[in-house]
Amino acid sequence: PGRVDAALSVWVMLGRPLLDALAGADERETTRASVLSRKVTSTIGISDIILVRRDGDGIEPLASGIWPMQAIAQADGFVVVPAQSEGYPAGTTVEVRSLP
Length: 100
Fold this sequence. Notes:
Blueprint: H1 4-23, E1 31-35, E2 40-41, E3 48-55, E4 58-63, H2 69-74, E5 77-81, E6 87-88, E7 93-98
């Protein structure tokens, strides 16, 4: 990937799980359930990775698609929106994964 955000997204979705599998790691990636403070939209047919940060008791979406460096620096984790979903409305409980 030519962009930093693209390289990071490839790492969190492919590189990290592959390295864990090759290393024989038994532990799965830790996730935590959190409530979205704003809605997240996605295009059907494309899996999206949404950067999020903690916001009080919930999480606030920061960026999807192209991630600005500021959003990467502020992010506490990310949420994966599956390809068959149009996103999540505000108030939905989602699984937040940690960034490396």
